């Protein structure tokens, strides 16, 4: 009689000890009574391909990929989804039974599903979005927002050329705004998204003036440590609808867990609590 193998998954990056993904996936494995493990793995760029190619034989059904390997992994994967190609990065690998390594990016859907769950009245067609930042996270947010039909994305970044490059790539619905004038976007914006690392524990605060913000505007921060950033606290005081970044992290994990373990997990208060443990 052949024994069923215990399915393994994990997350690969460096540094990796801060990752919340192990708590999230282990919580879902337990909730669904699945005998499996989710393991954080510290792997540098030189060993990335060798490690990844060895994992399927060791019983891994897939892994998440995080900083700094999210772009590089596209060269290693055998198949890349359209959305990962568009974003230019992958966060999820699926090790297929035929031996092929399939790369996907679930950050964009995670972003949108977090807003749908936590700001149920959100209508992306209501007006322009104001986006702060033009890094990897911004790419995932832009591709997801364009798909929702948002009429315009105003984008402001300290390094203007990075915002210009995104406009060239993603097209006419993007409008570049000078970083020193980022505050001017607030009045027109139906939603505001911080994709920079500003406001994160250990980073400088986000200093963009918010006084133009209108009541009811949706303000969301991708930063989740702290959960309530200065941006969210100020926006809340101004009567805005605020959504923190932890939900995006939880929602981006859902499609991966479903593909690896065959069950679609819920994102509920117990999942949030597990991630914060
Ligand atoms: P990620 O993949 O998380 O988006 P990234 O590609 O390094 O990471 O992008 C980080 C974002 O935060 C960028 O928009 C960056 O602005 P620059 O393109 O000018 O570097 C922004 N950022 C980081 N530190 C910043 C700071 N001190 N002031 C303004 N913007 C900052």
UniProtKB/TrEMBL annotation:
Pathway: Metabolic intermediate biosynthesis; chorismate biosynthesis; chorismate from D-erythrose 4-phosphate and phosphoenolpyruvate: step 4/7. Shikimate binds at residues 19-21, 66, 91, 107, 224, 252. NADP(+) binds at residues 82, 133-137, 157-162, 222, 245. Residues 11-93 form the Shikimate dehydrogenase substrate binding N-terminal domain. Residues 245-273 form the SDH C-terminal domain. It comes from Roseovarius phycicola. Its EC number is 1.1.1.25. Gene3D superfamilies: Leucine Dehydrogenase, chain A, domain 1, NAD(P)-binding Rossmann-like Domain. It catalyses: shikimate + NADP(+) = 3-dehydroshikimate + NADPH + H(+). The keyword Oxidoreductase applies. This is Shikimate dehydrogenase (NADP(+)). Belongs to the shikimate dehydrogenase family. SUPFAM superfamilies: Aminoacid dehydrogenase-like, N-terminal domain (SSF53223), NAD(P)-binding Rossmann-fold domains (SSF51735). It is an enzyme of class 1 (oxidoreductase). Keywords: Amino-acid biosynthesis, Aromatic amino acid biosynthesis, NADP, Oxidoreductase. Residues 130-197 form the Quinate/shikimate 5-dehydrogenase/glutamyl-tRNA reductase domain. Involved in the biosynthesis of the chorismate, which leads to the biosynthesis of aromatic amino acids. Catalyzes the reversible NADPH linked reduction of 3-dehydroshikimate (DHSA) to yield shikimate (SA). The active site is at residue 70. GO terms for molecular function: shikimate 3-dehydrogenase (NADP+) activity. The keyword Repeat does not apply. Pfam families: SDH_C, Shikimate_DH, Shikimate_dh_N. NCBIfam families: aroE, PRK00258.1-2, PRK00258.1-4. Homodimer. The gene is aroE.
């Amino acid at each position: 009689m052949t024994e069923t193998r215990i399915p393994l998954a994990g997350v690969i990056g460096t540094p990796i000890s801060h990752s919340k993904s192990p708590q999230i996936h282990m919580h879902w494995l337990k909730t669904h009574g699945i005998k499996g493990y989710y393991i954080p793995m510290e792997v540098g760029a030189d060993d990335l391909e060798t490690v990844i190619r060895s994992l399927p034989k060791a019983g891994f059904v897939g892994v998440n990929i995080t900083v700094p390997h999210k772009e590089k992994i596209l060269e290693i994967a055998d198949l890349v989804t359209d959305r990962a190609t568009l974003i230019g990065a992958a966060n999820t690998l699926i090790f297929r039974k035929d031996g092929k390594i399939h790369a996907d990016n679930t950050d964009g859907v995670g972003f949108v599903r977090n807003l749908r769950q936590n700001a149920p009245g959100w209508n992306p067609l209501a007006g322009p979005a104001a986006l702060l930042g033009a890094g990897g996270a911004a790419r995932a947010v832009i591709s997801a927002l364009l798909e929702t039909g948002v009429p315009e994305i105003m984008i402001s970044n300290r390094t203007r050329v990075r915002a210009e490059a995104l406009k060239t790539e993603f097209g006419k619905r993007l409008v570049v705004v000078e970083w020193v004038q980022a505050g001017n976007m607030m009045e027109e914006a139906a939603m505001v998204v911080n994709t920079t690392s500003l406001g994160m524990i250990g980073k400088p605060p986000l200093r963009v003036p918010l006084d133009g913000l209108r009541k009811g505007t949706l303000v969301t921060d991708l930063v989740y440590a702290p959960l309530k950033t200065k941006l969210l606290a100020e926006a809340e005081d101004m009567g805005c609808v605020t959504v923190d970044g932890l939900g995006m992290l939880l929602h981006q994990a859902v499609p991966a867990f479903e593909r690896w373990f065959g069950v679609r997990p819920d994102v509920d208060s117990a999942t949030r609590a597990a991630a914060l443990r």
